[in-house]
Fold each of these.
Amino acid sequence: GATVGRLYALSTAGSIVGTFLGGFVLISFFASGTILWGVALGLLLLSLPAQPSRPWWRLGLLLVLLLLAVWDRQFRPADGPLMVESPYNCMLIHESRDRGRPVRILSTDPDYSQSGMYLDDPDELYFDYTRFYALAVLARPQARDILMLGGGGGSVPKWLLSGKSGLDAAGLHLTVVELDPGMTAVARRWFFLPGDDPRLRLIHADARTFLNRRQEQYDILLVDVFNSCYSIPFHLGTQEAFAAMRRALRPGGVLAMNVIAAVEGEDGRLLRAIHAGLQRHFARVEVFCVTDPRHPGQLQNLMVLAFSDAATATVLRDGTGHSPEMAAMLACRYRPSLPAAEPLRDDFAPVERFALSLLRRP
């Protein structure tokens, strides 16, 4: 009985230590591959005192596994995808060609690409939805202070700093809030995000926490926190979050938010809830169907623009004098009035239920 009691006590203590060690230490500070190799080597080491006689074959196996672990951590394929792990993401970096031009792509889940870059022009925007951030610049052409929530691979920050947005790049002050330091490291190493530009301030924090604590105000607020419809940050789509975003904008400020959803039908419930929340705090809200304006019931990237005052929104209502590219983006505006919806709240944001329909595949 005493022996069985000691075994149960040791196993319980081991389970408690293993749970906290795995959840709060190993996963937070080490890649999953490193953890797997460490567990394998640890189990083999534990076998040595269990049967100390004739340990040579186990020591040999331990040495082989150790060499394999070192090789696994050092090996990087010359061609093909590169996988990088961080505390928040498993990132896949690969290169291909699009319309005859070399591109580098960053993916964080099986069906969606998170960031992209033309290798022959790193400052040019690659994905269609990122070009729609130019609508915020059109509405606020004299903007100097810009806040971006979700830096990703750094495509939009590079575009703004390069001057291709049309803003005065020399006088720009850009603050980027990115949750994952590993994502920033990838953006700097493989996507050429500048690391020493005095115009760029990078903050690694949760975007909602930053909004709750911030003191500054900005001319433009860009939100790109939807990696895909698999993981929706509900706390950035509630009416309380939009109230914090409105406080972060100066009078006449503009918010531009990328949302992955539909506009109409069952797949549009998430967008309509976000739209309703924005309407509580902004003078006017516009929705632009990026991927397929002719089929608003289709799951796609949507650019939602919210204006702190109605006068700023009139710039987008005037269809004259714009470049062909800008006119084409303005033509993607969803013109019908959206039906009334209940906004998401911090205490009730059923985004998982809304996302169930988004995950359907034909």
Amino acid sequence: MKIDSEFLPEKQCIVIDIGTKYTKFGFATEHSPRCIIPTCCEIDGTFIPDIYKCKDVQTLTLALTNFIHMLFYKYALVAPKDKKVIIVESLLSPTTFKEILAKVLFITYEVASLCFVPSHCASLFTLGISTGLVLDIGYKEAILIPVCEGVPVLRLWQAMALAGQTVENQIINRIDIGQLSPDESIDSIAEDIKVRTCFVTTLKRSKILATGQNVEPKTSDVEYHINGERSITISGDVRETVHDVLFKENIDEMSITTMILETIVNSNVDMRLKLAENIVLIGGTVMAKGFMARLKEELLEKLKSSKYNNLKITKFKFHIAPAYENYIAWLGGSIFGSTNNLNILSQTRENYLNENYVPDWPTTFTRQKIE
């Protein structure tokens, strides 16, 4: 049997999604990443916990060089030279980060071609739809961008610093650190506590708990084990309410709920119903048990207010993607890498060396659609 060389592992396109907390790496046409690792590295023995926080160009270049080397040679066990690469990126990612990443991949690691795919558009590839309201709640911020016929509507984007880190700060502030030994830090286990023990409660229970009243049945306390040697108690109140911070309005009356409604209000009238019925949730934070149900309750509750009751929307519909929410965008990049559009929209190393320029993907994609 003859095997097409384009689908051999050494020929497959590589898909990388560099998030602020975790990076997903794998090959196009595959249904899940080969590895998911923290987005951190070392520079001359100094640990860099967050690559995106590197301020100067030299430090960022060294950080990305070391991180890409570790990603390919330690975890993926494949050489990047002459490979086609897709980078799934946030549309709000700093331009400097994008340009330095392209330079590292093209110059240092000599990849054959590079294509930047917006994560909000890539997420819709997994569902086979071209229009939707994509809400990405990762580690540091929630980003909402509507996509219309495959093109992100950037004038309607919304972003807030409400995400996984906000929930972890609630855990850090509300757990009795007296339970920990002097050499233990609550910061290092807050994420694991959040994932293993916490959930999103219903809107009705949240309102009752906010008044200080008891609600039945009560959520039980759990014992969280540390290193298999000792444990600390996580109260039922903490388990049930730490995610409520994502739905509370700030001084400007904004929350994750109002982000969605404001985007719908400001969109064209003929698009409002379509956006409300095509909501896509991505990012690790939305994986919390009960999150989608609570968000739907919050949206329907807000529709009763005088500010939004003229929208003429009676329901909201959420898509269920064929993957875990934390790598939906990566899967979209994997699907995109198996199409002919990859060769059309990618920039080759030769073109990069001649032009020293990284094209903007949304602009390129729009031009291709028009032509």
Amino acid sequence: MNAQELALSSSRNPRTAATDANHFILTFENNRFASELFGQFDQNLKLIEERLNISARPRGNSVSISGDLVATNQARRALDFLYDRLQKGGTVEPSDVEGALRMAVAADDQLSLPTMERKAKLSMAQITTRKKTIAARTPTQDAYMRAMERSELVFGVGPAGTGKTYLAVAHAAQLLERGAVDRIILSRPAVEAGERLGFLPGDMKEKVDPYLRPLYDALYDMMPGDKVERAITAGVIEIAPLAFMRGRTLANAAIILDEAQNTTSMQMKMFLTRLGENGRMIITGDPSQVDLPRGVKSGLVEALQILEGVDGISITRFKDVDVVRHPLVGRIVRAYDAQYVIQDESEQIDR
């Protein structure tokens, strides 16, 4: 790379001045956005330094980046993407930086997605509602978000903390705001109550709320609270346990089944066949956390086997590396997975 100006000097894009192959200076035209990009006390730049093992030193609205050639280019692509996000009215938190870095690294891996541009800017799938814009933070999230756009039935399976449910609800909210569907239907199997909710106090909403709280949380994150309440009252957003789906045909709706690993085979078949005209269905769950009685096969596990390769159905499988919560969560998932492998091997030897 020769020493020269590499980018346009417009107010839209940062300018890149290269001094040698492993060192360049990024200059951002908007001082306020540059400050937000670098983070309070330059915490975002420190995170980039830590994750990529490079040097990222700020000076005014510029940052001097040096280190390994591949890593410095990953930093540049991540910063370009995040700056563009700020220009479009978004915000940049440390979790957004983590996501941009994951995607930048993935773009250079042999297993990178064909939808990502390797040399220029990052191209991440996004979900946009009036309240919030969410960008993919891992390659698997990117694939999942694109699958929800193109497929009528999508399975998102994998460990906790990978964003399966959150992104599904966000996508449903986006479809509702676009007018692509008339309503949102959110459901979960109330396994803890054995699907027998009558003994619980209160009306139906009060009975099932404890089991559906994660879905509520995601909804309120995507839409203004008053609009969520009005939509629930008007039946535009319906939240119900799986047991109450029987006998219905759900047309013109975005339908989400969460914690699907706790469905039986018959429950899963019943739910899948509820899909009506212009319906979009998303099913999420973690096959490693089945709470069904011993000997009862998970409807999710069976469905994944039966429906693999069926036209119109997309299956996205998340792994521990896709965990976007606290980094410790990913390590916990890996530790448990390793223990399960040891137990399985021990049981096979005993047999």
Amino acid sequence: LRHIVDGLGGKAHGVPREDGFDITVASEVMAIFCLATSITDLKERLGRIVVGYTYDDKPVTAHDLQAEGAMAALLKDALKPNLVQTLEGTPAFVHGGPFANIAHGCNSIMATRMAMALGNYCVTEAGFGADLGAEKFLDIKCRLAGLKPDAVVVVATVRALKNHGGVAKADLNEENLEALEAGLPNLLQHVENITNVYNLPCVVAINAFPTDTKAELDLVEAKCRELGVNVALSEVWAKGGEGGLALADEVVALCENGDAAGRSADTFAFSYDDDLTLAEKIEAIAKRVYRADGVVFEPAAQKEIAQLEALGFGGMPVCMAKTQYSFSDDAAKLGAPRGFTITVRQVKVSAGAGFVVALTGSIMTMPGLGKAPAAHKIDVLEDGTITGLF
């Protein structure tokens, strides 16, 4: 379903064309759902979805098909922020879920604003690191919603840093200070993105695993403090809320006072300006956030950028679709790689969401199954009991 040919069978069955499906969390409807601020805004955004082009390259929208009302009716109740609670009774919203590697990676604006109105502090997640989740939260969601965060928490694990230092996943439980130190530049680049690119105060939360040794935890903390970065050990997995008190104290201090360099919500800056061209915005992200030497635009992407700018979409922010395993567009380049370029093969507009999507490297917006699909574990016993669902 990633790459199909449809519209076959003659004039009554549509126009023959190459097409494909996106995974739900990468769809424009999910992005619209998360960026909408009301039912009215939701309908307007749905109506702006570009579903195709005429023979003279004019966009055809969902509004042209009079489809936005029906779509909004399906999403009416889903638009309400979903209130849940932690095991300790702390309220939380789980609302929307676009992946940060192939979509914009943030929960809904409505949930964030509601949380800000109802609590002293609102903590929101943006997954897949400061090159993806944080970049899109700050450059897309904050830009479109007018938000200015007071502080950023970069979550790190000893296991992930050892992996970036060259340790195979099967060996991550063993202490390896040499590999840990070799992988630390990856964490430090994430931190520098927050402090030097976006000018925000930052604290590193070391998410402790039972297999971490004291020497490993001490090394991460020491290297962070060498750069003047606040760091706190998070033991929430083992101890619940009590295990997060040290981190909470650091976050509150940064929110109230900023950091020692004077960074705060007032110094927050985007990684690129609105008035740049689409290519310049992509290059700014690649050079400033990924530390790439430059961007290679394939001919198809160049043509698409020119078309989108001619249609008036050039002022939109950019949503980069890129592997989450590397700062580059090559999943094998771990750590903090240098001397590479980013290849953009396709550029498409999500007009309702309000951003342009740039597909880099070999990233796919509809991933395949894992090596062992869940279906392999499901069975029915002789008495009718179904096994393997959970």
